[in-house]
Every structure is written in C-alpha cells, then in structure tokens.
Amino acid sequence: MMLADFHVHSNFSDGKLTIPAVIDLYGQRGFGAIAITDHVGESRTVIGKAAGHLGLCLTPATFSLYLEILKSEAERAWDQYRMVVIPGVELSKNSISNHRSAHILALGVSEYLSADGDVAEIAQAIREHGAVSIAAHPVDSGKFEKQTYHLWNRRNELENAFDAWEVASGDRLFPEVLQSRLPKIASSDLHIARHMTSWKTILECERHPEAILDAIRKQEVQ
Ligand code: ZN
Ligand code: ZN
Ligand code: ZN
Fold first, then answer.
1. How far apart are CA 120 and CA 220, in angstroms?
2. 3-class SS at 130?
3. With pLDDT > 70 as the criterion, what percentage of the chain qualifies?
4. What 8-state DSSP symbol labels residue 58?
5. For the chain, which terminus, N or C, has the lower number of CB atoms within 10 Å?
6. What are phi and psi of 171, to 5 degrees?
C-alpha cells in the first residue's frame, strides 16, 4: 500500500519550495508516489502572459530545465526513499469569469503541453501524449481565490474526457464530486509545506510510473 499525492507545486511556478525540498518533504513522510504539477498558462491571454513574465507559470523556455531537474530528482527520490516522482503540469486557463476558468492536470509528461484551446481538445491531447488527464478542483474550493467552474459546468459532455476528477483538494472534500459517478482522485494542491495537511490518495500497485498511472486510469485507488 502506498500514500500518494498527484497535485504538487514547486517554485518553477507559484509554489514556495524547490523541487529537491518537495522531494524531501514527501520522502521523509514515507510517500510511495507524488506528481509535481507546475502551472502552464495560456500563451495568448493577458492573464496567461502576465503569469509567465512573473515566473508564476512554466514557459517553453523554462520547461526543459524543469524536466531535467525532475528527472534527476526522481532518481534521487527512488534511491533515497523508494518514492516514485511523476513529471506533470497543471494547464491553467484563468479568466476573470469563474465559469470560463479551468485547471487540468497532465501526469506523465515528456514534452511541453499547451494550455491554449478548448478543454475537450486539451484533454484529448494529454491522452494522445500518453499522459493521465485530471480535472483539478472543479467545484467551489472554499478558498478566497478565483474559482474554476468550467469543467464542472460541462461535466456531462466531458464525463469521459478525464481519467479522474478531484474529489478533494487540500483539506476540502467536494460532496458534488463524491456523489457523482465520475472517476475520482484526492490531492493536496500543495504550494507551501503547511498544505501537507490535506486529503490524499492510496494505491496498491507496483512502485513504477506506468503502473501508477494505470491504477489511476482503472480507478484502483482509494
Ligand atoms: Zn498555484
Ligand atoms: Zn489549480
Ligand atoms: Zn494546483
């Protein structure tokens, strides 16, 4: 059995910790798997461009360094903690309207994925890339911040577009998602160390990236 967290930020976007600090935070607590999922913003919107300039999002220019550090830190995490580290991104569509905003996680990425275009096309592109697609915090997060309702508004149409929908984010459980038949996952959306106090996912599978991604696809998760 392993404890897992598939939604974690580093200082490559708006998280406070470096990637090595994130690895040690989870490794020292005995986690079996984590995904680091820094934000990628839209390239054509004012909010997306501003976030890129402020260093709050990965850009095509910083992405190769991000992947390189994730690769070497994944090796260290395995050697030191027997913890699997999956490279991911959070494709972030931020609009002034909560109903047009959507965050989509891609787990198991090996090249830059764009946050531009319609969410259905983005979800399809993630799967064609061989990665797992997750609808992040699709309902009211209870936090004093912009909300992302676009995916939930279109949940009937997008039901099969995602491998999982976040049923919890941080310390908040989402009853609407819990009561739905949608495939589920629970994650921290950790930005600072204190966010460790959160819902997590438990898996029983081999400690290997592909086995872990498959367990999410097959919903062999708790
Ligand atoms: Zn963030
Ligand atoms: Zn988000
Ligand atoms: Zn996030």
1. 24
2. coil
3. 100
4. B
5. N
6. -95, 10
